[in-house]
Amino acid sequence: MIAFDTAITFLGFAFALALVPGPDNIFVLTQSALHGRLSGIFVTLGLVTGLIFHTSAVAFGVAAIFQTSAFAFSALKYIGAAYLLYLAYLSFRAGKSSITTDNAPRETAFALYKRGLIMNIANPKVTIFFLAFLPQFVDPAIGGMIAQFYQLGGLMMVVTFFVFSSVALAAGLIGGWLRGSPSAMIWMNRCAGMIFVALAAKLALVQK
Fold first, then answer.
1. Quick one: residue 135, left, alpha or beta (phi over 0 = left, psi -120 to 50 = alpha)?
2. Closest Cα to residue 71, out of 182, 208, 175?
3. How many CB atoms are closer than 10 A to CB 25?
4. Over the stretch 120-163, which tens digit does the pLDDT of each residue have?
């Protein structure tokens, strides 16, 4: 069991890090603004669930592979970049069709959840970050290191859900205006597509 003062210190860092603009919270913001607050919440749930993967990778030593193997790191980052480009394609294609019919199909909650999950898992920087960040708060002297890693990962999930959900709710406030303005919807979709392209390029060019 991690110490109370350690948990408080960790939470402070976690909140600060979750607030830093990055691919995940930008993704939540654009999805919420385009499709409503619930869409952002389901994407957030997927992103948060993905943190279990990164926590497990650190806890069981798999993260060391990504840190030492150039092939593993490159493979995962290119998968993530390809997925971001796919999202960009969907955004550009949806630019006009999403507003021309009242009965346009909406993505299911599971599809949105899966988007967030895949995007988070396919980002090797999160794994490397967890490898550098979490061990600083683990104390081998009290035993149960794997349990400590999962406690820290759980706290990170709670903080991330709170911050990203707040982003979704705030962005969702302008959703009604966007959906009532065809030109605004088209440009918002295009902006979202360009953001995904930029994030894909940034991820593909990142070095260990």
1. alpha
2. 208
3. 22
4. 998 887 887 888 788 889 888 887 889 999 999 999 999 999 99
- How far apart CA 29 and CA 191 sit, in angstroms, is 12
Residue 36 has pLDDT above 60, yes or no: yes
Residue 142: which H helix or E strand, with range? none
**Cα–Cα dist 30/35, whole Å:** 8
Give the whole-angstrom CA distance, residue 30 versus residue 13.
Answer: 25
**Under 8 Å CB-to-CB from 157, ≥6 apart: which residues?**
48, 51, 52
Give the CB-side neighbour count of residue 109, counting CA atoms within 13 A.
5
What single string gives the DSSP state of each residue in 152-191? HHHHHHHHHHHHHHHHHHHHHTTHHHHHT-HHHHHHHHHH
For helices 109-121 and 23-35, angle between their N-to-C axes, nearest 10 degrees: 160
Confirm if 80 and 203 have CB atoms less than 8 A apart: yes
CA angle at 120 for the pair 190 and 127, rounded to the nearest 5°? 135
Give the residue extent of every domain in the chain. Answer: 23-205
Q: Which of 163, 154, 203 is nearest to 56 (CA)?
A: 154
Whole-model pTM: value is: 0.74
